[in-house]
UniProtKB/TrEMBL annotation:
Annotated protein name in UniProt: Selenoprotein F
One example GO MF annotation: oxidoreductase activity
Swiss-Prot/TrEMBL keywords: Endoplasmic reticulum, Selenocysteine, Signal
GO cellular component, one term: endoplasmic reticulum lumen
Entry similarity comment: Belongs to the selenoprotein M/F family.
Bias type Basic and acidic residues, positions: 21-34
Presence of keyword Cell membrane: no
């Protein structure tokens, strides 16, 4: 007997009509096992890429030039890899990310910050305007710098006044900016 699927072989059963369900289930189980193996291999490759790229971290400026700015978490890069099949792009993301459980990064504080934004584009960012007009004075170590065509970003400064980290804040709410500065500025956390 042959059914619609030629890859499944059926033998007649003496008491019933021929059934293929047991064979089909075995085939489905094998295919599911293959899918699980493929998924495991993919996860292993991603973890290997993360481990290999861990030693090749890029500077904040290099990451910004590649288009990876802000507090990108490595888990975001892994999600990114599911949608973008360009391994070089994923590798760059992994070089610019911060591990999700990196407690040492959460304890880093800065001496000051520059809030850089384009004055012409400021109208599109009411939350940032609200921060500048009503909250900025609470943070004396934060200066506003207007730069033509610059997306809104927070440039964190070390003790020497040098740029230590750049974080894009395009979609941040005012309370997110406040919370971030309270946690990251030495004068605000003291």
């Amino acid at each position: 007997l042959q059914l619609a699927r030629p890859d499944v072989e059926c033998k007649p059963n003496r008491t019933k009509l021929p059934t293929c369900t047991e064979r089909e289930r075995e085939g489905e189980g094998e295919r599911e096992g293959e899918r699980e193996m493929d998924m495991a291999m993919c996860v292993t490759m991603l973890l290997a890429m993360a481990a290999l790229s861990g030693g090749q971290e890029l500077s904040s400026k290099e990451c910004e030039n590649l288009g990876f700015t802000g507090l990108a978490l490595c888990s975001d890069c892994k999600t990114f890899a599911e949608y973008v099949k360009d391994q070089e792009l994923v590798s760059d993301c992994l070089k610019c990310c911060v591990e999700d459980s990196d407690d040492s990064m959460s304890k880093v504080t800065y001496a000051g910050a520059l809030l850089e934004v384009c004055m012409r584009k400021l109208v599109f960012y009411p939350e940032i305007v609200g921060f500048i007009e009503e909250e900025k004075d609470k943070f004396p170590s934060v200066k506003v710098q207007y730069s033509f065509n610059s997306p809104p970003k927070m440039i964190m400064l070390d003790d020497n006044g040098e740029h230590a980290e750049t974080i894009r804040i395009d979609n941040w709410k005012r309370e997110h900016i406040l919370q971030f500065l309270r946690g990251k500025l030495k004068s605000a956390s003291s």
